[in-house]
Amino acid sequence: MALRLFNTLSRSVEEFAPLDPAGKQVGMYCCGPTIHDSAHIGNFRTFVFADLTRRYLEFKGFAVRHVMNITDVEDKIIARVRAAGVSLKEYTGKYEAAFFADLQALGCRPPHDSPHATEYIPEIVALIETLVARGLAYQAADGSVYFSIEKYRGCGCVYGQLLKLNLDELRVGERVRSDEYAKESVSDFALWKARVPEDGEVFWPSPWGEGRPGWHIECSAMSMKLLGPSFDLHLGGEDLVFPHHEDEIAQSEGAGLQGPGHRFVKHWMHGAHLLVEGKKMSKSLGNFFVLKDLTGQGFTGREIRYLLLTAHYRETFNFTLEGLRGARTALARLDECLAKLRDTAAGQSAAAPEPGLIGAVAAALDEDLNVAGAWGAIFEWVRQVNRQIAEKSLSPAQAAAALAAWEVLDKVLGVGAAPETEAPPELLALLEKRVAARKAKDFAGADAIRNELKAKGWIIEDTPKGARLKRL
RNA sequence: GGCGGGGUAGCCAAGUGGUAAGGCACGGCUCUGCAAAAGCUGCAUUCGUCGGUUCGAUUCCGACCCUCGCCUCCA
Fold first, then answer.
1. Are A403 and A347 a contacting pair, CB within 8 Å?
2. Are A291 and A304 in the same domain?
3. Is the peptide bond before A396 cis (omega within 30 degrees of 0)?
4. What is the pLDDT along chain A (472 residues), one digit of tens a residue?
């Protein structure tokens, strides 16, 4: 079956075919975080979506090179560096480390490359020089270098590939900064920003004087450097469609490095935003979550990842605490089934994965990563397995094959197994005491111990194979 | 004002021109000393509203209502 993915360029679902003539290598770039603060749950939805895309491509047999940039120089960062009185590197290093720790907690595979804007200044300057030489960029009176949309369109290029744009009707918003009025046209954007006093020590030399890169140019410079002037996939949050991605296309195609008939990026994908408790995240509403806020309430990265992966990436998703609790219960159902499968398969050597489940999940994921459909297939399978185990009609060989199938799928979903939580010895001793009490028909004593354990956060599961403790 | 998403059971969420996946919650049952946990099972004559096309529409078309996002540095 062929993988089909929505492409923002065509606004339709298209069959995915890599540029590589051998059909094997895939270059994938995802716009990463700006490390001025802790990333929030909405940011992570995008990165989990990128991780799923990468994992599924790998499942389909592609050799993926996954690049995610780290924006480590930008207005907000400079302002905070200034306020904190530390060096740029010192400031961003802290948030970058936290970001990667969060990413790992959410089960995301680390990208193969995580280039930093500040480490690609020569490439950025070279790209701007190319654009200036081609007459598409100009230095304005304020010393900054801007990209001219008008000149770009003048050479027959299309500005507005990702969305319908009517430049004359663009409303000039409040966000247009007064210091950018040196531009020839409002829609022009900065490639190189001339140094201003507020920048402090954050600047680099360039042919146009000291300054720093504009926002969009880093992605063009780094993606083309690492993946080539044309590559397969570029992902990001839906808010990046305009202007960021549109400007990336303009800069990258404007530099004319692509071969004839090739675009900068073949396939653009955008993840929808998140609502939290039905509302847009905001600090005043108290629904602004960073990962730590949720793990602090006892939720695991695994549960958060699962919840983020229950809805299609192009739909706005309502992230709620109730949903998170539901995620926990749903995962427990899956874990329980897998544990029983392991019991049943005990002693069996590795089996060939049972193809039925894999086929059903792949059929869903092939259709623009329909992850909700995939979970539907998985939970139908869980019920079927449970039924077979209950009526003892599942052979150890079948159980081993089922487990093998799950392991293949989990390489895509990345939900893994529940972490083993072994109860401390003193609680296990209590459990033994209760078993003895029950045997002696001292039910009052047994119930007292049960309550004591419960108060300590553990519940007793009396299974046909004996009692065990489970974290509440 | 321009452009683009959505409205499916109490909640979350798939899907299809032929009569509605899955998860959570809830009810029933099995198990149990009683529970809990776990498992099984039940749970939308109906898919925002009103029209139209059709043998048949939640799915296609039109209008309307509601909601969300983007419109120059926000994933």
1. no
2. yes
3. no
4. 799 999 999 888 999 999 999 999 999 999 999 999 999 999 999 999 999 999 999 999 999 999 999 999 999 999 999 999 999 999 999 999 999 999 999 999 999 999 999 999 999 999 999 999 999 999 999 999 999 999 999 888 889 899 877 655 554 443 444 444 578 888 899 999 999 999 999 999 999 999 999 999 999 999 999 999 999 999 999 999 989 999 999 999 999 999 999 999 999 999 999 998 888 887 777 788 999 999 999 899 999 999 999 999 999 999 999 999 999 999 999 999 999 999 899 878 778 999 999 999 999 999 999 999 999 999 999 999 999 999 999 999 999 999 999 999 999 999 987 766 678 888 899 999 999 999 899 999 999 999 898 888 888 888 777 788 887 7
Residue A43 lies in a domain: yes
List the strands of the sheet with A137-139, edge to edge: A137-139, A145-147, A189-194, A211-213
Termini Cα distance of chain A: 43
A457-CA/B29-C1' distance, Å: 29
Which residue minimizes Cα–C1' distance to B30?
A: A390
For residue A177, is it within any domain?
A: yes
Rounded distance in angstroms from the CA atom of residue A357 to the C1' atom of nucleotide B53: 40
Distance CA A64, CA A56 (A): 10
Across all strands, nucleotide nearest A39 (CA–C1')? B75
* Alpha-carbon span A257 to A307, nearest angstrom: 41
For residues A81 and A21, membership in a common domain is answered with yes
Nearest to A228 by CA among A258, A270, A195, A266: A258
Domain membership flag for residue A465 = yes
Handedness of CA A166, A168, A171, A176 (dihedral sign): positive
The model's pTM: 0.94
Residue A251: which residues within 8 A CB-CB, separation 6 or more? Answer: A127, A131, A147, A191, A216, A217, A220
* In contact, A184 and A140? CB cutoff 8 Å: yes
Distance A322 CA to B12 C1' (A): 9
Provide the residue range defining the domain that includes A361.
276-413
Residues A176 and A258 in one domain: yes
Q: Say whether both A339 and A379 belong to one domain.
A: yes
- Judge residue A73's burial from the number of C-beta atoms within 10 Å of its C-beta, 0-12 exposed, 13-18 middle, 19 or more buried: buried
Which nucleotide C1' is nearest A243 CA? B72
Residue A377 in any domain: the answer is yes
* Together in a domain, A244 and A360: no
